[in-house]
Design brief:
This protein has 218 residues and is an alpha/beta fold. The protein has one domain: Vaccinia Virus protein VP39 (Rossmann fold), CATH 3.40.50. The chain has a 6-stranded mixed beta sheet, with helices on both faces. The protein has a two-stranded antiparallel sheet with strand order 1-2. Helix 1 packs parallel to helix 2 and helix 4 packs parallel to helix 6. It is globular. The protein starts with 14 loop residues before the first strand and ends with a strand. Bound molecules: S-adenosylmethionine (SAM).
Length: 218
């Protein structure tokens, strides 16, 4: 996904103000994601975010969890500028300069010290499955014992879409890129978690047929 000249990284048109990009979907869902995050994730320590996009989720979470140090990042250069722009705009001292990690790259986790949490919002279905595989493999190595991985997005459940709109969304993702697609929580994602030493601790129903899914390292 670092070859962003060939492949769009988001499914929406985004306005800009200097480096800061505005995501219409982040504006719609950031409050409910923050609520789920605050209920389930560590409220202190270090949390790594991968695939941060514009950075709007990160700053929304960072403002609500001031004892957490956030490490946002994205392989996309313009997204990294936007993340830094949003952190500066809000004067947030608990948001680090963005990293450029691509979780499908072998050994990506070696760039970091152990962390208390990892967040990835709307990433694994808009990336090849190797990104989900790499995310879990790295999470298994990077998370401290008791550390948590928070995912947000659409998932199918045990082989079936939960809504006709999700089936249509899956088709539209695959028509853009055959390696993208709505992932199956029980059949595709939980096995990756188990292999990495993580267990599923919470599945939260979210608006518009999405889920927040939380895993914990033993
Ligand atoms: C649809 S955007 C979501 C951005 C943001 N999390 C949000 O919800 O607004 C997906 C993001 O994941 C990033 N991404 C795609 N593949 C990735 C990978 N292998 N490793 C890390 N980030 C990746 C893209 O560059 C893009 O910014």
């Amino acid at each position: 996904m670092s070859d962003d000249k060939k492949q769009p990284i988001a499914l929406e048109e985004r306005a800009r103000e200097a480096a800061r990009m505005f995501s219409p979907s982040a504006a719609r869902n950031r409050d409910v994601i923050r609520e789920a995050f605050l209920k389930t994730m560590p409220r202190s320590g270090v949390i790594l975010e991968v695939g941060s996009g514009t950075g709007e989720h990160c700053v929304h979470l960072a403002a609500a969890a001031p004892a957490v140090r956030f490490l946002p990042g994205d392989p996309d250069v313009a997204s990294r500028a936007s993340i830094a722009g949003w952190a500066a705009h809000h004067g947030l001292s608990n948001v680090a300069a963005p990293h450029g990690v691509d979780v499908s790259a072998r050994g990506w986790h070696e760039a970091f010290h152990p962390v208390d949490g990892i967040v990835s919002i709307n990433m694994i279905h808009i990336a090849p499955f190797a990104a989900a595989e790499g995310l879990f493999e790295g999470a298994g190595r990077l998370l401290k014992g008791g550390g948590r991985l928070f995912l947000y997005g659409p998932f199918s459940r045990d082989g079936a879409h939960i809504a006709a709109s999700n089936a249509a969304f899956d088709e539209s993702l695959k028509s853009r890129n055959p390696s993208w697609g709505v992932r199956d929580l029980e059949r595709e994602i939980t096995p990756l978690a188990e292999k990495a030493g993580l267990s599923l601790t919470a599945v939260i129903d979210m608006p518009a047929n999405n889920f927040s899914v939380i895993f914990e390292k033993a």
